[in-house]
Amino acid sequence: MKDKLARLQALKLNVKKEYVEINALKKDIVKEMVETDSKEIAYDQNTKATLEWVVEKAIDYEKLMKLYPDVYRLGLKPTFSTRQALHSISKELLNKVIKDCTKGSAQYNLKVGRK
């Protein structure tokens, strides 16, 4: 059993190292594609790499805690839950608060797939 657990931990560590390398390579490829203004590159006959503009939104929890502490406490679970908060306040008010406390980030994301 200990041998299996040790092997599992070793595999997890290797996977983690591989993901670190994968993410670094993706960032380098995206940077190079942006610098050369290449939005799409054919890798081989069946595969291409494409840059996608991705906008991610996330709640700014520090702002939510600072400006709306009561709403923040209403939504607390191990993480903030809008469903939990809806038990105590209206959907309209919660949507207004969430919209006010949402921050976004935009960046290129690499997508590699079939042509």
Q: Can you offer a commentary on this structure?
A:
It is flat and about 55 Å long. It has helices spanning 2-35, 61-67, 69-74, 82-85, 91-100; strands at residues 40-42, 47-59, 102-114. The protein has a 3-stranded antiparallel β-sheet with strand order 1-2-3. Helices cover 53% and strands 25% of the residues. A hairpin with a 4-residue loop joins strand 1 (40-42) and strand 2. The N and C termini lie far apart (46 Å). The protein is built from 5 helices and 3 strands; from the N terminus they run H-E-E-H-H-H-H-E. The model has no long low-confidence stretch (mean pLDDT 87). It has 115 residues and is α+β, with helices and mostly antiparallel strands.
